[in-house]
């Protein structure tokens, strides 16, 4: 063990709302995350980048997604667009940590490379990881994931093993890496990146985990949204002055909802997906403890974007899901056909289903905020952030209201490990680090920070102190006072035209500097590539 340098375990999950886990007011049993929160810190205003690939690109590099070449997803939109591939003007957390003596491991979802089948210079081993097991693509069957890879080699055959389930495989591999490290090089510090795909669709989960949630959501989304907000206020995470947003206007009151048995099952499976992840996190923590490394390991947990309101399928055919996007299998491992679509005649969970839980439950997951994955309103970008480090954080169970966002993760990890951010890497100049270290905030809360900026598919925001200017494409800017109204209910843009103009100017300067490509241009480029009906065109 190297006492001077902490190990770092960075855990990211996929498409989970702000208030699903127990220690953020939710109904899902997450005793292991709750324990990390009780012995560590929870952040109330931490933000991601609203979507899988850009969030990962930003978190792994300390930059804005557009600077890395991953502005939207991993589609290559040509020389005038985003490459959909981590470029060579950025350096990843593991690349930097390796210069400081760290061994680096990853298990789980990569999703920052455009080539899904051939190893390229943007696959994990070529971007700083000594060891990798996981998927290159962004979604897929939990029983039989496409692009399962070990090192640089296809490992889809590993899913043929009896009882294979991707969430468990990610956890098991993370545990195995910790044990391997302890036996091979205990004198060196390590970095492990654990990127779960739970609870991203499809709704796949173990029967025993699903059964545990029978009845848990029977009150329906309206009552549960109120209960969640009450718990969030009681815990001190959210202010009592912030009011619950209205139910999504496209969704019925729970009392009028049809197909309740199927709806409940959808939410029960979603909960079971998170539950299974939490069980795995428990095994990872236990492995650290057994190796005597828990006290000197910084564990960070967060989600890559807000809850997801996408229906399955949405604007894409089964053929496209299976063959073009490579995020589904047409048949189960035993040769049964997979039934695609949110069909109330078929209960989700098993391998022969491919469903999502839909808008109303995503609305519950993002309580008390509005909107979802894809948008920069609070429902799209707010994430739990738990930081656990017994040796370095004296306070147990504290809450930090300091705002922060994904580029800060790299800045924080480099700061904690005493690693320099390079001006150049392997002879290439590297963009300056955009994130700000949260280390001072670990000791003492502080609200002051430089402006934060976001853009995804034309949705955009800038946050300066208490003010947030936010846009839902193609609508105009809205202005909110986040101290009085974090749930974004009272648009003050008309009352503050000068502030709106000033913040919009700062946003435009940032967007130009970071290479944000206008949505209209991206859509035209994607159509030119033959991508005509992608998820991101839903509100055109
Ligand atoms: Ca995601």
Runs in which pLDDT lies below 50 for 5 or more consecutive residues are none
Helix content: 25-40%
Number of helices, where a helix is a run of at least 4 consecutive DSSP H or I residues: 15
User: Proportion of β residues?
Assistant: 15-25%
* Ligands bound to this protein structure: calcium ion
Could you tell me how far the N terminus lies from the C terminus, measured between alpha carbons in angstroms? 54 Å
Overall pLDDT confidence: 95
Query: In oligomeric terms, what are we looking at?
Result: single chain
What gyration radius follows from the Cα positions, in whole Å?
Answer: 22 Å
Could you tell me the number of beta strands? 19
Main β-sheet description:
11 strands, mixed
Q: What best-fitting shape do the alpha-carbon axes yield?
A: globular
Alpha-beta classification: alpha/beta
Walk me through what this model shows.
The chain has 540 residues and is of the alpha/beta class. The chain has 15 helices and 19 strands. Strands 1, 2, 3, 4, 5, 6, 7, 8, 11, 12 and 13 form an eleven-stranded mixed sheet that branches. The model has no long low-confidence stretch (mean pLDDT 95). Calcium ion is lined by residues 14-15, 52, 200, 304-305.
